[in-house]
Amino acid sequence: MLSIQNLHVSYGPIKVLKGVSLHIDQGEIVALIGANGAGKTTLMSTISGLLRPQSGEIKFEGQDIIKFPPDKIVKLGISLVPEGRQIFAPLTVLENLELGAYLRSKDKKGIKEDLDKIFSIFPKLKERKNQQAGTLSGGEQQMLAIARAFMARPRLLLLDEPSLGLAPMVLELIMDSILELNKEGLTILIVEQNAIKALEISTRGYVLETGRIILQGSSNELKEDPDVIRAYLGKDYEEITER
Amino acid sequence: MGGGLLALINLRREKIALMGQILQFLFSGLTNGAVYAVIALGFTIIYNATDVINFAQGEFVMLGAMVMYTFVHFLSWPIPVAFFATIICVSVIGILVEFFTIRPAKNADIISLIIITIGVSIFLRGVAMMIWGKDPVAIPPFTGSTPIVFMGAAIDPQIIWVLVITLIAMIFTQWFFKYTIWGKAMRACAVNKKAAKLVGIKVERLVSLSFALSAGISAAAGAVIAPITFASYDMGTMLGLKGFCAAVLGGLGSGVGSILGGFILGILEAFGAGYISSSYKDAFAFLILLIVLFLKPQGLLGQGEVDKL
After folding, report:
1. Residue among A88, A90, A98 whose CB faces B181 most closely
2. Is A69 left (phi over 0), alpha (psi -120 to 50) or beta?
3. FRET label pair with B44: which of A78, A130, A156, B102, CA 20 to 30 Å apart?
4. ipTM of this model?
């Protein structure tokens, strides 16, 4: 569905991505894990068209999308839930969702259907639909950010750090909803520092370190990999070597 | 006894005269205030879309008056046709201004962009002077000029037009932002441009639209006050500054705030000019601006930059 070949991205003189290649197949949940500053958010921004790469290739369903502006990429079916949620705080929850469907704002019936679907997945948002989005709790804002991206009817959903700043119980709820969206047929790329959570819900994973993919495999393999355990799963080095 | 009655009648007369005077000031204040409010709203629309304070805002008002004059005087178009044609014309000028001056410099910092708008205002004033000359021109009132006498105050019928049209402009703008998808998208852009792009909003297109809307309502204000104040190439400077004061007073970025700011400014100015001295009329606006900046820099209804982030 999405394939990235040898992608190079820089911020001015600083090279952030140094030849990243990955692919995502229809219906998968793929995790991209890595420490702060590894280039995860940069990769997400580049796929969404917010950043222009130096070189490389991004193909979505066979089409080269590297020069496309963000609105065209949304139209093709890729939506990003950005890091830190980035909801429209002074607007109401409903207005946020309507703007999610901005590119098909004439499709009133379809929007209504999608709203019903979203409200069944996130009943909290229905309760608060006329409230200012900025007054929601962190978890609810994350739900809204995901819901807003969903309103564009994407086929590929990019999630950038959905766990950021959430309490464990709320996080559980968000992760469940991601699984639910996947069951509805949505392909998902999830970027996380919380590697345990990301590998739990995903089928495959990539490990990004200082701009390069250093490891890839099924999520179960990655969970067992000693380097991953040491670096990202927070287990002590000795604990691993003892095994 | 006869003397007492006379005194009573005199007192009554004075009271009526005083009522009439207050009403006269109030109407004059409301009229100017409504115009300031619309100009302030124009500032707010562009500020919210681009973070730029457009100092060519007053020139859009001037163009409204001058284009209206051209349509009515030279082309002899009926007033309603001329009025709507003026709004469309100046909206297009607004789009062109954005396209040729702001857009090419989009990576410049805000201060540079603001200075560009000052350049635009000087340019538009110069062009207007070349086209229409230096002398003020008169536009006939929309419906006659027989004053309406109301509780001892004589009210120019054009004042009613000013109030009605500016009110429609304000309601239209509020409706636009609250109920249309473009209006909501503009508010979204004002809050978070990156997120706006991520839902597929073409930010440039909305910036164009914001210039069109802002220029359009300012032109409507210009066209409707021209029969009262005369129209000239340099009328926009002071109106623009007053509108800016009103926008700051109301809290830059708040639509309702700018409307409130406009009316407060207009009324204070009218009473100040009436009861203190009319030679200080223009000074009141700036005095109020200074007081606001000292005491409540975020304005009456403003969020302040910190809250906006």
Report:
1. A98
2. beta
3. A130
4. 0.87
